[in-house]
Design brief:
It contains nine helices and no strands. It is mainly alpha-helical. Helix 4 runs antiparallel to helix 6, helix 6 runs parallel beside helix 7 and helix 6 packs antiparallel against helix 8. The longest helix is centred in the middle third of the chain and has 37 residues. It starts with a helix and ends with a helix.
Length: 213
């Protein structure tokens, strides 16, 4: 349950950050878009796991909470949220660049509609499909990273219970009780498979070319 909560919560935060960043870059265009995308490229050049650990260490060094367990929870939530928005921002930016050239957007501009109104009424409703699909793929990715970091001892720690924490505990008694490690691994695999199949179904549902098949 904790792994699911972390995965869903951080994916939603990443969705909000990525949507705002990508939509602003795509709408503004020009040198602003280029500068913002160069920043994205820099983040992309850093391996995801390295960036996750770096952000986690930075947040762990900030004494927000005296409780080490709460500090670990805050660090993993911040790390997954900050790292996960990059891909979403690029996709949203591409969708905005495509939709803002549509005839109905040009008509709204000609009628004097503000950029904020056009975003809310014309652009966001037409790019929500790909965003929702990406969200369903982001959730299992975050669950996997959280479990991996927790297994290494860099993520959640007891008394919080996640699949990574359970696998770490099971690893210590692998010879005597192998099921203690196999069970969380199987649960993680089934959950990721379910989310990926769900995402594939949503992608097909939002794809006009697939509706007639």
């Amino acid at each position: 349950r904790m792994s699911m909560a972390v995965g869903i919560f951080t994916a939603i935060i990443s969705l909000c950050l990525g949507t705002l960043y990508g939509a602003f870059a795509g709408w503004m265009g020009g040198w602003i878009d280029s500068a913002m995308m160069r920043f994205i490229d820099i983040l992309y050049s850093i391996p995801t796991l390295v960036l996750l650990i770096l952000v986690k260490v930075i947040f762990d060094s900030i004494d927000i909470f005296d409780n080490p367990e709460l500090r670990a929870m805050t660090g993993i939530l911040a790390a997954l949220s900050i790292v996960g928005w990059v891909t979403l921002a690029r996709v949203v930016r591409g969708q905005v660049l495509q939709v803002k050239e549509m005839v109905y957007v040009e008509s709204a501009r000609a009628l004097g509609a503000s950029g904020f109104h056009i975003m809310l009424k014309h652009i966001f409703p037409n790019i929500m499909g790909p965003i929702i699909v990406l969200l369903t793929f982001q959730i299992p990715s975050n669950i996997l990273f959280e479990s991996f970091l927790s297994f290494l001892g860099l993520g959640l720690q007891p008394p919080f219970s996640s699949w990574g924490v359970l696998a770490n505990e099971g690893w210590r008694s692998l010879n005597s009780y192998p099921h203690l490690m196999i069970a969380p691994g199987v649960a993680l695999f089934v959950t990721m498979l379910a989310f990926n199949l769900f995402g594939d179904g949503l992608r097909d549902a939002f794809d006009p070319q697939m509706k007639g098949r």
